[in-house]
Amino acid sequence: MLYEITVPHFIKTLHNLENVLEKGAKFAESKKIDMDVLLNSRLAPDQFPLARQIQIACDTAKLAAFRLTEKTAPTHADTEKTYADFQERIKGTIQYLESLSAADFKDSDSKKITTPRWEGQWVTGAEFVSHHALPNLYFHVTTAYSILRHNGVEVGKKDYLGPMPFKK
What contacts 24+ positions apart, CB below 8 Å, involve 122-126? Predict the structure, then answer.
């Protein structure tokens, strides 16, 4: 079950992030603004800039999947500088997620999950997904979206949500 509520949502959300970044790049080009300006923008002085929001969104998705499955995730040195670098990071993260299957998540809902920051404390896989992984991914993607919108990039709710699985 954790596969169904993580991997497809991680992939969709990262694709949505790709799309809002593309709009940001087109905006920068049309306004003759260096894309670095957007990548280094933030909403508050003590908040990470757009570049770091993208890195953390990718890390959240890949490391959540790794912790739940123990399938080796790609490593990133956090040295991305350009729009193309960030698009590559997102694509690589999506490729990793696409390599996983529901079978890889067998028994992950009751697995003990911890991180170095939690100082020996742990949660179950199900708790990890609902209390940390999904909210953290959405937080950083929302913040990236908000930074772009704050800087004048014409993105809206539909860009954030992405395509809906409507039926007729």
Answer: 125/2, 125/67, 125/68, 126/2
Which domains, from first to last, does the chain contain?
2-161 (1.20.120.450)
C-alpha 77 chain-centroid distance: 16
pLDDT tens string 36-90: 999 999 999 999 999 999 999 999 999 999 999 999 999 999 999 999 999 999 9
Strand pairing partners for 123?
Answer: 113
CA 80 to each of CA 33, 43, 51, 54, 109: distance values in angstroms, whole numbers, following the listed order = 19, 20, 8, 10, 33
SS3 89: helix
Greatest pairwise CA separation for the chain in angstroms: 51
